[in-house]
């Protein structure tokens, strides 16, 4: 779902301010846990419905986190790409896809709302399609890096000595 999370972020913060709920501003991505239950944002994207559930559960504290996409996100992957021994065309494709992401620098790429109920964390998480694409590229590059490291581990003594 490609939507403007900057607008949604402002709307959610205004709604929370008027709701009387305490808002804890958390770190984006800091909600990952085993006791986490994700809200179905595909079929029920309305954050107000999520917050109504929190109110019915008598939650008084809502964790709110937002993340902005930064130039370092793209730069880090481009740097990792430099160290990979991959086909030139494949490398160009990665570079093209990553450079296209630069237009989103400074844009909110992830929103998270959460509340605790009986030791479970109930989470509303929203991110646009373009950020899902970025994460997909990141996963591909990390996988290639992992494969390259595994190949290096197969070398005797880590590949530091000549096989002559």
Descriptive report:
The chain contains five helices and five strands, in the order αββαβααββα. With 164 residues, it is α/β, with parallel strands linked by helices. It has a domain of 113 residues. It has a five-stranded mixed β-sheet, with helices on one face. The longest helix is centred in the C-terminal third of the chain and has 25 residues. The termini are far apart. The mean pLDDT is 88.
Labels describing this entry:
alpha/beta; elongated; 164 residues; 46% helix; 5-stranded mixed sheet; 5 strands
What level of helicity do the residues show? 40-55%
Order of helices and strands: HEEHEHHEEH
Low-confidence region ranges: none
Q: What gap, in angstroms, lies between the N and C termini?
A: 56 Å
Tally of DSSP helical segments: 5
> Assembly type of the shown chains?
single chain
Shape: elongated
Topology:
Elements: H1 5-19, E1 22-25, E2 36-38, H2 47-56, E3 61-68, H3 71-82, H4 88-100, E4 108-117, E5 120-126, H5 129-153
Parallel strand pairs: 1-3, 2-5
Antiparallel strand pairs: 3-4, 4-5
Helix pairs in contact: 3-4
Q: In a nutshell, what does this entry contain?
A:
Strand 4 (108-117) and strand 5 form a beta hairpin.
């Amino acid at each position: 779902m490609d939507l403007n999370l900057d607008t949604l972020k402002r709307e959610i913060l205004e709604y929370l301010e008027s709701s009387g709920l305490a808002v804890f501003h958390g770190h984006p991505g800091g909600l990952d846990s085993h006791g986490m239950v994700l809200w179905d944002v595909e079929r029920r994207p309305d954050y107000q419905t999520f917050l109504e559930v929190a109110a019915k559960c008598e939650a008084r504290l809502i964790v709110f986190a937002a993340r902005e996409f930064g130039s370092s996100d793209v730069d880090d992957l481009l740097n990792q790409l430099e160290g990979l021994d991959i086909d030139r065309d494949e490398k160009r494709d990665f570079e093209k896809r990553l450079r296209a992401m630069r237009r989103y620098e400074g844009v909110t790429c992830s929103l998270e709302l959460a509340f605790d109920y009986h030791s479970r964390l109930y989470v509303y998480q929203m991110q646009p399609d373009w950020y899902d694409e970025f994460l997909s590229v990141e996963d591909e590059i990390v996988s290639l890096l992992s494969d390259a490291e595994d190949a290096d581990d197969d070398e005797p003594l880590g590949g530091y000595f000549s096989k002559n």
